Amino acid sequence: MTMLEAHSIAFRYQPHGSWVLRDIDLHLKPGEIVGLSGPSGRGKTTLAKILAGLLNATQGQVSLDGRPLPQRGHCPVQLILQNPELAVNPRWHISQILQEGYDTAPQPQLLQSLSIETGWLSRWPNELSGGELQRIAVARALGPHTRYIIADEITTMLDAITQAQIWQSLLEQARLRNLGVLVISHDAPLLARMCHRLVTMPE
Amino acid sequence: MLTVENLSVTFSMYNDGLRQQQLVVITDLDLEINAGEVVAVLGSSGSGKSLLAHAVLGILPNNASVGGTMMFAGEPLTTQRQAQLRGKQIALIPQSVGYLDPLMPVGQQVARAAQLSGVSQPQQAVRQTFNRYSLADRVRNMLPFQLSGGMARRILVSTAAIGQAQLIIADEPTPGLHPDVVAETLRHLRELADSGKAVMLITHDIQAALAVADRVAVFYAGTTVEVARATDFAGDGQALRHPYTQALWRALPQNDFTPLPGVQPAPNALPSGCLFLDRCPLKTSMCEVERPALRSLRGGAVRCIHAT
Amino acid sequence: MKLTLATPATPARSTPVFNRRSKTMLTIGLCLACFVAVLIGAAALGDAGLQSSLRERNLSPALAHPFGTDWLGRDMLTRVVQGLSLSLKVGLLAASVAAVIGAVLGTLSATLGGVVDTVITWIIDVFFSLPHLVLLILIAFAMGGGINGVIVAVALTHWPSLARIVRAEVLQVRQSDYAQLSFKFGKSPLWVAWHHMRPHVIPQFIVGLILLFPHAILHEAGLSFIGIGISPNVPAIGVILSEAMRYLATGYWWLGVLPGLMLLILVKTFDVLGENVRHLLDPKTSQD
Q1: What's chain B's average pLDDT?
Q2: How many separate domains does chain A show?
Q3: How many other CB atoms are there within 10 angstroms of residue C158's CB atom?
Q4: Which residue among B180, B245, C161, C222 has the highest number of C-beta atoms inside a 10 angstrom radius?
C-alpha cells in the first residue's frame, strides 16, 4: 500500500516519565493534504519528528509503503519546522543551506515560485528575515527524493501575504509531484482552505 | 500619549571588510497612540516594527542612529527621558520568557519590576496582580522554565501591568501560541487599554490585531503605509486605503488566499519613490518620482497618491 | 494632497577607515608585529651580548647597553630579548599541544557520548579541582625539568579548559535542528561533523588557543624561576628573574624590573590579541 503510515505510536522522553503521545494512528497518501490540529503543542511537534524519522517512537512504528522508514540516505519524508532560524546553520551561506537537500541543484522555477531571489544565495541567514528563511527551508525540503512533507506550523510566525505565497507554491509542487502533505496548524481557516481531510490530536 | 513623527533609524553595518554601510531600516514613520486605545502595528518580519518598539524605549544597539521626533505625554522624548521612563511610564511586554532571569523565581522578578517602576509596596502589588491574572500564589516561587505557556504569558504581562506605566508596548505577544492563550493575552491587553493606558500591539498576525485593536497602523519596508480603523477590515477590503493593506486582507485563507507576488524590499535596496512600487497593481509613472506623504483619508491615513 | 521630496535610495556610503573594525584589525596587526619583532630581534642580536665581559659588570641602562649589564657583564637587552623569544616559542608549543589535546578530547567526548563522555568529563572535572600550580610543579619535577618538562607540564594542565569549550560547542551543534535535519538529507555523521560542526568549533578554538598562550608563557617563566624549568645556562625570562632576585638589595634594579616588565608586556599583548580576535569572530559584537 503506497502511503506513509503511523501505527499505534506512543512516545515518552524518559523510560519512566509521562507519555507525550499515546496510541496514535495516522496515514497520509500521495497527493493528499491532511490537516492536523489539537490542544497540546508539544505532542504535535513530537509526532511530526517521529513521522520524519528524527525521533524514534517508544512504541509502535512508522512505515513507508509497508516498510520501516529508511535510516540512511535522503529520507522521502521531510520535515519543515516552525522556526527557520533554528533549522539552518547560522554559519553557512544560503546557497549551501539550499544545496543540502539536493544532489545537483534546485530548479530555478521552484526558487522563482517561492519568490527566492538570487541575491539571497550569497547571504548569511542572519541577513534574511523569517519569511525569507522559511522560503529557503521549504525549497530545501522539496528535493527530488522527497515524497511527503510534514509542515509543522510553518507559517504561524509569518504575515498573511508570505503565508499565502509559501502555501500556494508548496501546494502547487504537491500537485505536480503527487506529494503527500501533513499540515500542522492552529489556524482553522487555513486548514479548511487547503486540506482534503482533517485530523485532531486526542488528549 | 505617544506621538512619533518622521522617525528614521539607520544602522551602520560592516559589509565584508573594513567599510561601513548605512542601512536605513525605518523611514518617515508616523504614529499616534492615545490613552485608552489599542493601536496595532501590523507588519511582516523585516518591516521594522520591533525596531520601532526599541526606538521608543531607547534600547537600540550601538550601531543605530535615530532621526525624527517622539513625544510622550506632550513632552519630547529625549534619550535621557527614555532612560528615566523606561520600565516606569513606558513598559515593555517582552516576547518570551527568555527575557526573564532563568535563575530567579518569577514572583521576585515581578516584584522587582514593580520596585523599579516606583510602586511603594511591591509584595502587595505582586499579590494583587497575580490575583488579577488568576495566578496561584505558589507560582511566585516557580522558575521561568517551570511555567506553562499560558502562565508564562500572564507573568510577562504582569511585569508591565504592575507598575504605573501609561504606555505599554507588547512586542509580538503571541508567537506561535495556542489560540486560547492568544485570546487570553489579547484580552488582557484590551483590559489594560480600557483602564486608561495606551497600548501598542506589535504583531504580524492580522486576526490577533483585529481582535482587540481600535486602530491598525500598517508597516511596510520601514514606513507606515496606512492607519486604518479596525472596522475597515471587512468584506473584500474596499474600506482599506492602501493597496498593500488590501493585499494583506485578501491573502488571508478565509478570503481569497491569493498572495501578491514579490517580496518586501531589503533596506539596502529600497526603490526611489514609493516603497511599494515593485509590487503595486496601481503603479503609474508618478509613483517613481517621490515618496508620498502620509495624508488623512476617510478617518484614517494613507501613504499613496492613488488612494480614495 | 501633500507630496514631500522623495528620499533617494541610500547608496553604500563608506565611512573613512577609522571605524571600530579597522581599529580592531590594526590592533591585531600590531600585536602580531610585536611577536615577530621579538623573534627577529632575538635572531638579529645573536649571542654577542651573552658573552661574559667582566670589565662591563653591573652597568645601569645607558646608550651602549639600553637594559644595562649583569654581574658577568652580559648585555641585559640581549638576554631579555633572547629570553622573551625562548619563552614565546616554548609557550606557543606548550599551548598548541594543550589545545590540540583539548580539541580532540572535547570533540570525542561530545560526539561519542555515553561512557566516553562521562569518563572524559570526569577527568576534566578532576583536573579543574586539583590545585593548578601544584600539579604543574609536580609534573615538571617528575619529568626532570628542562624544556620538555615545561612543555609536558603546561600541556597536561591546560587542555581541560579548551576541551570544555569545544565539547559545549559540539554538543550544541549536535542537538540543533539543522544537524538533525542534515542526517535526513542523507548526510553521514562524518559529513555533518566536518561541515556543520567545524565552522562553529574553529572560531572558539582559535580564541581559546590565543588566550592560552599567556598562561603557558607565564607558567614557563614561573617554573624556570623556581629552577625546574629551563636550565640556568639558557637565557629564559624566568631564569633571568630568578638570578636577579639575588641582587635585589644591591640596587641594581634593571636586573629584575626590566625583564619582568617585558614579560608583562608580552603576556598582555597576547591578551589584547585574543580579545580583539574574539571581538571580530563573535557575531554579536562584530558589527560594532
Answers
A1: 83
A2: 1
A3: 24
A4: B245
All three cell numbers of B198, joined, read: 495606551
Average pLDDT over residues C249-278: 85
Tell whether A171 lies on the interface with B, counting CB pairs under 8 A.
no
CATH number of the domain at C23-43+75-281, please? 1.10.3720.10
Q: Nine-digit cell at B132?
A: 488579577
The 10s digit of each residue's pLDDT in B270-279 is 888 888 888 8
**Cα of A173 to nearest chain C Cα, Å:** 19
Nearest-CB residue to B247 (from A41, A158, A161) = A161
DSSP string, C27-40: HHHHHHHHHHHHHH
With CA atoms as reference, report the closest residue to B83 among B122, B48, B56: B56
Among the residues of chain C, which ranges form H helices? Answer: 20-45, 76-112, 114-129, 132-142, 146-174, 177-184, 189-192, 198-225, 237-245, 257-281
- What is the mean pLDDT of the segment spanning A93-116? 89
* Domain residue ranges in chain C: 23-43+75-281
Which residue in B45, B252, B257 is closest to A131 by CB distance? B45
Residue of A49, A50, A51, A89 to mutate, testing the C interface (most C Cβ within 10 Å of its Cβ)? A89
The domains of chain B are located at: 2-12+21-35+49-89+206-302
Going by C-alpha positions, the residue among B301, B282, B241, B222 that lies closest to residue B46 is B222
Both ends of chain C: CA-CA distance in Å?
Answer: 42
**B286, B276 Cβ separation under 8 angstroms:** no
| Cβ distance of C15 and B27 shorter than 8 Å | no
Tell me which chain B residues have a C-beta less than 8 angstroms from the C-beta of A120.
none
* Per-residue pLDDT at A138 exceeds 80: yes
Give the residue numbers in B contacting C (CB under 8 Å), as ranges: 12-15, 18-24, 27-28, 61-63, 268-273, 289-293, 295, 305
Cell 540516505 -> residue: A73
Burial label, A27 (beta-carbon count in 10 A; 0-12, 13-18, 19+): middle
Class of domain B2-12+21-35+49-89+206-302: alpha beta
Q: Of B15, B22, B290, which has the smallest distance from its Cβ to C10's Cβ?
A: B22
Cα(B158)–Cα(B110) distance, integer angstroms: 7
Q: Write the pLDDT tens digit of every residue in B254-268.
A: 888 888 888 888 777
Report yes or no: A123 at the B interface, CB cutoff 8 Å.
no
CATH number at residue A38: 3.40.50.300
Interface of A with B in 173-202 (CB under 8 A): 186-187, 189-190, 192-194
The rounded distance, in Å, linking the Cα atoms of C40 and B79 is 52
> Would the CB atoms of B12 and C15 count as touching at under 8 Å?
yes
